[in-house]
Fold this protein.
Amino acid sequence: MAQHPSHSQDHRHPGQPNPADVQKALHGVNYPTTREKLVKTARSNGANQDIVDLVGELPDKNYDSPAAVSKQLSRTQ
């Protein structure tokens, strides 16, 4: 049985990148890392501009894990 769109598990607003796509874009990051290195990695991994922009909007601080990045992204979106 198909789920109604309002009941889907994807709670992103229209236009927001999929968290899995963000993690793919950040593949290979060595933690801890900075926002600047996250943006550089996303670009080098061929991420689309929406993801690069989203990562670029993160606070300029050190991130100690992919979970820390995901948590901050959920606050930013």
Summary: Residues 20 and 26 are 10 Å apart (CA to CA). Residues 66-76 form the longest helix (11 residues). Residues 25-76 form one domain. The helical segments are 19-25, 35-44, 49-56, 66-76.
